[in-house]
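User: Sequence for ADF-H domain-containing protein below. Tokens please.
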Amino acid sequence: YTCVWLAVTERNITAPLSWLPSQANAASGMAVHDDCKLKFLELKAKRTFRFIVYKIEEQQKQVVVEKLGEPGQSHDDFAASLPADECRYAVFDFDFVTAESCQKSKIFFVAWSPDTARVRSKMIYASSKDRFKRELDGIQVELQATDPTEMDLDVFKSRAN
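Assistant: Structure tokens for ADF-H domain-containing protein:
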């Protein structure tokens, strides 16, 4: 890999080596379905969605898109889309107004791991999180939440500024 990396850096390409054959996460063995990245790019570039909820399909050993939130949906809709006793990853496009009255938005990555989730599930999500998050280029803020109060609207507001 050293030779490959040197050849790539000499061409001034700074992208990670995601084009190498294995897309699986070394820690957990989870692959990332192409749809995960494609839908994220739509959220980021075209604002086609307000949020995306991702689920790990343990049988297929991959992360997949579970739910897409329409652009008009709210933070409450987003919070309601996360299961009470199962882990998920999610991305939320948060709109806010700055102290200077400027309209802005930030893309939040939420690692949802409720206390009531299965221990095995929490371990799989925790070991796959960093690799999966790297696939979503453009995340601006990360939240880890174990209960709904850790990702309520006030938390998003305080972390956005």
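Residues 55 and 88 are 5 Å apart (CA to CA).
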